[in-house]
Amino acid sequence: MLGSKGLETRIAGLEKKMLADKRLPAEERIMLRFQQLRRDLQNKALANPAKGVDMAAYNKGLEEIGRTLKKEFPGEDLPYHVLLSVANRLDAKGKRRLVEEIAADPKASKGVRDTAAGILRGLDALGKPISLKFTAVDGRQVDLEKMRGKVVLLDFWATWCGPCIQELPNVKATYEKLHPKGFEIVGISFDQDKAALEKFLKKRQIPWAQYFDGKRWENEIGRRYGITAIPAMWLVDKKGVVRYQDARKDLEKKVAALLAEE
Known about the structure:
This protein is an alpha/beta fold.
């Protein structure tokens, strides 16, 4: 019988053979190569369990995977999606560096460059006034300019998003405590099924207005501001300026501080 080493050697041989088979569609070969590279990175990251995973080194390794795939499979979108996923793990400076590179890459598809441009618009929105106007799923008219004087949470979420649902009790508790003092929430739903969304809102007794267009990741507001991962929580101050783009941690404390401002 083959031991684990023998099995790994056999699998590696099969992968090499499949990757060399030009009859396989490029999308199948690139996924195989991605899984191979990611597995090697994960094995390296977990080589010393006692030390834990060095996330900075892991993110650097993911970026190298994206660049390797770009060289080996020019013209495919997956390498850029890998790099965009890395960008979401970095601080604002690192994120901008990587996204600007992608937005300016002539070899990237228009869809990829449009996504990168949206992310840059989102980064540029921090510290600036934001305008948003729409008819909510329940018919309410939402206009951020008419909400000046209040602190507003823009909650990009979906009913199918596990972390979004886990965050909901904290969001509701903050709303119930601080809404009487001038705190509002505007939901930006990435759902596709309007009836399912409405049922969820009723069941969970969510009172704030919701944007819905049924386009999932092609959500118009989400694409405008480059939202590629949810939940994303932006906090807008009383003057309509975006003050936080990652308000999940210490949400109540952040909202209270903004409410206390003149």
